[in-house]
């Protein structure tokens, strides 16, 4: 490929419906600068374009811009992705320019999301912001031993309200794998009840832990 340009034709025939679909693809690659440009035309009369730039601005950074256009219907899309990877770290951001979220006839905003993750030999942590950063999800995975694995996931949506003003929930996990959960509820003015649970995820496989490993508790609080 002396000119750095390649062409590819693919086709598929469905034996049941006898429908035939196909793509014609042209790709230009500049491996020295990490640039790839792909143009595709499908038998459904959809034109697709994709521009990729990897390790050019910074090592581990990949930028991806993909568009589609259907001339017959006028449907179109444009999505920009940014991915950054290093040893143990993987982050990604997405921005959809034409997937509009409409809250009123005069107010529109494009859709976007972001994610970040950290991976180590024995554990992994990820945090994602979805739906225009209105929904957040966090997950933790820990390989306790060759036979035991533990994981947890939490999702928070800024729109719905799952708890009333008289309730409070708290969760946290530290860097040594100790997971703490807490719940507090106001029963009536001046009376509160609390429940707590602490788990050492690194000692879940110990039948008889040598010392305090997991804790559970409850308490009532009376205020005059």
TrEMBL record:
Pfam families: Porin_3. Keywords: Ion transport, Membrane, Porin, Transmembrane, Transmembrane beta strand, Transport. It comes from the Eukaryota. GO terms for molecular function: porin activity; voltage-gated monoatomic anion channel activity. Belongs to the eukaryotic mitochondrial porin family. One of its GO terms (cellular component) is mitochondrial outer membrane. This is Mitochondrial outer membrane protein porin. The keyword Transferase does not apply.
């Amino acid at each position: 490929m002396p000119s750095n340009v390649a062409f590819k034709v693919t086709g598929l025939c469905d034996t049941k419906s006898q429908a035939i679909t196909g793509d014609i693809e042209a790709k230009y690659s500049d491996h020295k600068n990490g640039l790839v440009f792909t143009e595709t035309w499908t038998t459904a009369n959809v034109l697709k374009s994709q521009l990729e730039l990897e390790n050019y601005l910074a090592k581990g950074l990949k930028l991806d811009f993909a568009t589609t256009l259907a001339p017959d219907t006028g449907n179109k899309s444009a999505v920009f992705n940014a991915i950054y990877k290093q040893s143990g770290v993987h982050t990604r951001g997405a921005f959809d320019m034409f997937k509009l979220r409409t809250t009123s006839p005069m107010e529109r905003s494009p859709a976007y999301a972001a994610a970040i993750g950290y991976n180590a030999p024995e554990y992994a942590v990820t945090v994602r912001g979805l739906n225009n950063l209105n929904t957040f999800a966090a997950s933790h995975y820990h390989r306790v031993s060759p036979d035991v694995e533990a994981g947890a996931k939490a999702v928070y949506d800024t729109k719905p309200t799952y708890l009333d003003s008289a309730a409070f929930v708290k969760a946290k996990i530290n860097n040594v794998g100790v997971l703490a959960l807490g719940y507090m509820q106001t029963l009536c003015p001046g009376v509160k009840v609390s429940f707590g649970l602490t788990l050492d995820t690194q000692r879940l496989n110990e039948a008889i832990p040598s010392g305090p490993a997991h804790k559970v508790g409850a308490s009532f609080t009376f205020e005059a």
